[in-house]
């Protein structure tokens, strides 16, 4: 008679068949990053907008022959880096065939689940692929309940992809308890702690990761933590090294897209655009870089090209955030009807993603605050804050409260998002803009002027709609008054 575990695995395998085809010390670690950047520069890298990049084609000439597509994708998904979509398709087909033939192969189930997560992330097909990923990963656990850290890490990655940070923390901490030296646990814990507004634990997880491992995947994760703590030079250096050391075009494109985003956040339009363009050249399926091109092109006044870039990104990776950005670009151009089409698409995409377990309350709340019902935005974002109080949510909730006529309450959250004393160390022009506008509403003209100037100094092009509003508000505030200094004789 079959065991319950074998029966569960057989059932899961049948479902697959039915759907087939569808620093030792932190400071020393940071110093090590800088040394590697200097070494990379001697190897022929150049400076583009403060981030070092190797010349296209240099690295490829020295590389050994690439592994087979399935093997390359498997190595990528097991280490949490980007894999090319065609390679992912091959890997998924191979693992589906494997678990149909051997339904008690726990490792293949875990790899299959991780591949589904990555494919869903790259295509925004959460409704189809995230439930399949969960079934595969839970089947892996049912087949091998003990000492199955790979499945636990996969479930943490899935929860992070769904923006379910409490679940990601639970799965990640369970994996760490089981296998504390398994380095792939720590990137998932970094994402979970960041989403829960716990930067100290995120930094501690990074420090442990740097003790256990080096390489592009670790450097990319380090860059994200450094960026969140306001260490932009360290983040840029880490991304430069990650891109130079990437094992595949898709992985290198991922780090270049992040470098482009970092350049964009500090208002470096041309360098950001070059990073995004190179990422798309290396990996035509790098839709985040195509959306990034849309942002940079719009800031450069190349509006038609910007609209086209956004439309291409949305066609292949229809994320709600892209629809919101494109809608606001249309609105800034006076194209209200086209903007409404994108806002309708945003709501529909959030509904579809919810079928895959994705939490879309943050992007919905942001849209409601500026383009819908601010009171509804407050309800959504207040619940989100109670569940997972990250910096992004603090900023959005503070702004929604302001838009709903409650600026005193809103300022509390805006301070959390921007004040270093409250761990608000992200140098974000939109966050600083929100704080400045709330302070202006409260009659705190000096603070408002200071923060609006800082937002525009950080990135004068942060939004086609709101950067214009920030400039108008700053003009209306006028120059600071200077009290007459008494004369002493």
Q: How would you summarize this macromolecular structure in one to three sentences?
A:
This protein has 489 residues and is mainly alpha-helical. The chain is built from 26 helices and two strands.
Describe, in plain words, how this protein is organized in 3D.
The protein has 489 residues and is an all-alpha fold. The protein folds into 2 domains: 4-50 and 68-301, Serine Threonine Protein Phosphatase 5, Tetratricopeptide repeat; 363-477, Serine Threonine Protein Phosphatase 5, Tetratricopeptide repeat (Alpha Horseshoe), CATH 1.25.40. It has helices spanning 4-19, 26-42, 58-62, 69-79, 85-101, 106-123, 126-143, 149-161, 165-178, 185-195, 199-212, 216-228, 232-245, 249-265, 269-282, 287-299, 303-316, 320-332, 336-354, 361-371, 374-387, 391-403, 407-418, 429-441, 445-458, 466-477, and strands spanning 45-48, 51-54. A two-stranded antiparallel sheet has the order 1-2. Strand 1 and strand 2 (51-54) form a beta hairpin.
């Amino acid at each position: 008679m079959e065991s319950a575990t074998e029966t569960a695995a057989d059932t899961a395998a049948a479902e697959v068949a039915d759907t087939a085809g569808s620093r030792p010390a932190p400071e020393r670690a940071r110093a090590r990053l800088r040394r590697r950047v200097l070494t990379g520069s001697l190897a022929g890298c150049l400076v583009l907008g403060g981030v070092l990049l190797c010349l296209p084609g240099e690295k490829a000439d020295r590389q050994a022959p690439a592994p087979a597509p399935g093997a390359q994708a498997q190595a990528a998904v097991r280490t949490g880096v980007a894999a090319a979509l065609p390679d992912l398709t091959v890997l998924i087909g191979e693992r589906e065939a494997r678990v149909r033939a051997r339904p008690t192969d726990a490792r293949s189930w875990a790899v299959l689940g991780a591949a589904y997560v990555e494919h869903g992330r790259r295509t925004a097909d959460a409704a189809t692929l995230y439930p399949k990923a969960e079934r595969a990963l839970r089947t892996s656990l049912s087949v091998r309940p003990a000492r199955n850290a790979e499945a636990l890490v996969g479930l943490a990655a899935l929860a992070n992809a769904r923006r379910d940070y409490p679940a990601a923390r639970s799965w990640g901490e369970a994996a760490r308890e089981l296998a504390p030296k398994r380095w792939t646990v720590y990137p998932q814990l970094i994402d979970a702690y960041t989403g829960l507004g716990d930067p100290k634990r995120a930094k501690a997880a990074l420090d442990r990761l740097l003790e256990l491992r080096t390489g592009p995947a670790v450097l990319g994760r380090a860059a994200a933590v450094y960026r969140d703590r306001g260490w932009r030079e360290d983040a840029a250096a880490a991304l430069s090294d990650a891109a130079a050391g990437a094992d595949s075009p898709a992985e290198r494109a991922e780090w270049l897209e992040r470098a482009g985003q970092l350049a964009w956040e500090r208002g470096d339009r041309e360098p950001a655009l070059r990073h995004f363009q190179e990422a798309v050249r290396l990996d035509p399926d790098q839709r985040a870089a195509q959306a990034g091109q849309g942002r940079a092109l719009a800031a450069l006044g190349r509006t038609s090209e910007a609209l086209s870039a956004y439309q291409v990104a949305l066609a292949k990776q229809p994320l709600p955030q892209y629809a919101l950005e494109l809608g606001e670009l249309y609105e800034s151009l006076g194209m209200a009807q086209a903007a409404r089409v994108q806002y309708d698409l945003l709501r529909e995409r959030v509904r579809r993603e919810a079928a895959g377990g994705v939490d879309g309350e943050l992007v919905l709340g942001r849209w409601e605050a500026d383009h819908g019902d601010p009171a509804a935005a407050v309800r959504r974002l207040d619940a989100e804050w109670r569940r997972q109080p990250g910096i992004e949510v603090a900023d959005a909730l503070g702004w929604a409260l302001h838009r709903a006529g409650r600026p005193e309450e809103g300022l509390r959250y805006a301070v959390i998002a921007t004040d270093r004393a409250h761990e608000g160390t992200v140098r974000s022009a939109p966050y600083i803009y929100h704080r400045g506008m709330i302070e202006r509403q409260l009659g705190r003209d000096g603070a408002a002027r200071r923060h609006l100037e800082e937002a525009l100094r950080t990135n004068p092009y942060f939004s086609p709609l709101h950067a214009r509003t920030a400039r108008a508000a700053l003009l209306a505030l006028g120059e600071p008054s200077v009290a007459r200094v008494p004369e002493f004789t």
